[in-house]
Amino acid sequence: MGFEQKFWKDILTYDEIKYLRKYKIGVIGSRCIAELLWRLGIGCIRYVGDHLTGWDAFLDPSIPVDETDSYDVLEQRTEGTDIYSYMYPDDIRRFKRQLRGVDMVVAHRHIRESAVVSRELGVPFMPDIISTFLPDGVEYESVRTPETNLNNPLVYTLTCSLQVAEIFRILTGNGMPVLAPDAMVVDLKQPGYIRYIKLKVEED
Q1: Three-state DSSP string of 18-49
Q2: Residue 72, CA distances (Å) to 5, 52, 57 in order
Q3: Residues 202, 204: Cα–Cα separation, whole Å
Q4: pLDDT tens sequence across 39-48
Q5: Is the N-terminal amide bond of 61 cis, ω within 30° of 0?
Q6: With DSSP H G I counted as helix, E B as strand and the rest as coil, what are the percentages for the chain, rounded to 5?
Q7: Domains of the chain, with CATH numbers?
Q8: Helix axes 92-99, 111-121, angle to 10 degrees
Q9: Which segments of the chain have a pLDDT < 50?
Q10: What 3-state DSSP class applies to 115?
C-alpha cells in the first residue's frame, strides 16, 4: 500500500487517488498548506514564496529554523508530485505567469494580488480564511474579512488543515465546500473551534 493509499484509506478508492494527480494548485506563502497538499497526493504544486523570518518558523513546523532570514524555496519532495518554487515578483504580470495553468489558488500572503490574478485566470481562490471565492461569484475585494489571528500556531495549523479539506472537497466533489460570502474561521473559544460567519459585502 502506497503512501497516498494509507493517507486516504477508507475515504478514496485507488482510482480517485490517481485522479488527484491531474490537478495543479498555486500556493502563496504557506509552506504548511503546500506540505498538506503534497501528502494529499496533488499532482503539481506551484509555490510562490517570500522572505522567511524566525516568526514564520515558529508558526509553521515544516520550516526548519536554519532556513530563516533567507528566501522561501520549496524543494522537490518525492516522485509523483511536481513542485515548482518561485519568488514573489514585483510585477503582477510575472505573478500571473507563475500561476498560469493552475486549477486553484490559495494565498496567505499577497492576498489581494492573488485574488485579482485568480479571477483573471478563471480559477477558484481561497484567502487566509476558510472560504472559496469563485471567479464568477463574490469578489474578494468586495467583502470585509474578519481578523484571523493566524499568529497563533494552533489557529494557523487548524486553518491550514481545514483549507486543504475544502480544496479536497472542491477537487473531488466529495461534500459541499464553503463558498463566499459564507465562511468559517478558527475560534479557539468555540466548543468545536470553528465559527461560521457570513462575510459582509461592501457597497460600491
Answers
A1: HHHHHCEEEEECCHHHHHHHHHHCCCEEEEEE
A2: 30, 6, 11
A3: 7
A4: 888 999 999 9
A5: no
A6: 35, 20, 40
A7: 3-201 (3.40.50.720)
A8: 60
A9: 1
A10: helix
